[in-house]
Design goal:
Blueprint lengths: L14 E2 L2 H10 L7 E5 L5 H8 L3 E6 L2 H10 L4 E5 L7 H8 L3 E6 L5 H10 L4 E9 H8 L9 H9 E9 L4 E2 L6 E8 L10 H12 L6 H4 L7 H7 L13 H13 L10
Helix pairs in contact: 1-2, 5-7, 7-11, 8-11
């Protein structure tokens, strides 16, 4: 794209301009005429143009002032730009102020993709769905089921609040400059409610983080500081407590959080 600013390594910028790949992203996101789309990190605007071409209105958040100026100079109809940091944006307020929930579509900078996804999950009510590009290993972890080494914090939490659809992989050569890793696009459809209603969502976040920080240990040891009677607590969940964090299905994590919320001391089930 003539005249565009060069990518900045410090911002994790890798530009994607292949029309066929951009079209596949828009198709995976189910973007069509009249949709409200939020794009994070539009860069020089390759994906932005594809979204506009599908008939969507696009609100784009860009931290790089050079890219903001470049996009503004292009005069793309239907595009509204916000020069701000994606990690410091209040997405719930943004949705409220601009007319409702968005479809989120973004090629996320790899250097902030983990903390940014965590933020997006916490503020998920701003979105109907999120179609996002990650480093392939990160995408695989988000979609991973229980039992494997790929299973981790973001996978459990993303699956608690979203239905995950794996899209497609992209080789490094699809980008300029090419990253050192493969990429993958996935779609997260935000559930109206979690897999089961949570008595205390913040508690779920805390215990998942606590357990996976000690992922080689058994659950009864990961959460021992919260429980006075671990054996009875895990028995009430149909578990032994000898399971390791990555072995637990997402639904069981939610059940565990709810039982702990109702029974903060982890006392015997007869006292519940």
């Amino acid at each position: 794209m003539a005249g565009r600013p060069p990518p900045k390594k410090s911002l994790g910028q890798h530009f994607l301009n292949d029309p066929g790949i951009l079209r596949r992203i828009v198709e995976l996101a189910r973007v069509g005429p009249g949709d409200r789309v939020l794009e994070i990190g539009p860069g020089p605007g390759g994906l932005t143009e594809a979204l506009l071409g599908a008939g969507a209105g696009v609100l784009a958040i860009e931290a790089d002032g050079r890219m903001v100026e470049h996009l503004e100079s292009r005069g793309l109809a239907g595009l509204h730009l916000l020069h701000r940091d994606a990690l410091k944006t209040d997405y719930l307020s943004l949705a409220l102020e601009t007319g409702g929930r968005f479809k989120l579509v973004a090629n996320l900078p790899y250097n902030i993709s983990g903390p940014l996804l965590a933020k997006l999950l916490r503020e998920r009510e701003a979105f109907t769905d999120m179609t996002l590009m990650f480093q392939r290993e990160v995408a695989e972890r988000i979609a991973a089921g229980p039992g494997g080494k790929e299973r981790g914090i973001l996978g459990v939490l993303a699956q608690a609040f979203c239905q995950i659809e794996k899209g497609f992989r992209l080789p490094p050569g699809a980008f300029r400059p090419p990253p050192k890793v493969e990429s993958m696009v996935i779609r997260l459809r935000v559930l109206d409610t979690p897999l089961i209603r949570l008595a205390n969502e913040e508690l779920l976040w805390k215990i998942v983080h606590e357990a996976f920080q000690k992922r080689r240990k058994q659950l009864r040891n990961c959460l021992r500081h919260r429980l006075t009677d671990p054996e009875a607590f895990f028995a009430a969940l149909g578990l032994t407590g000898t399971e390791r964090p990555e072995e637990l299905p997402t639904l069981k994590w939610l059940e565990l959080a709810n039982l702990l919320a109702l029974n903060p001391a982890g006392i015997e089930t007869k006292d519940l």
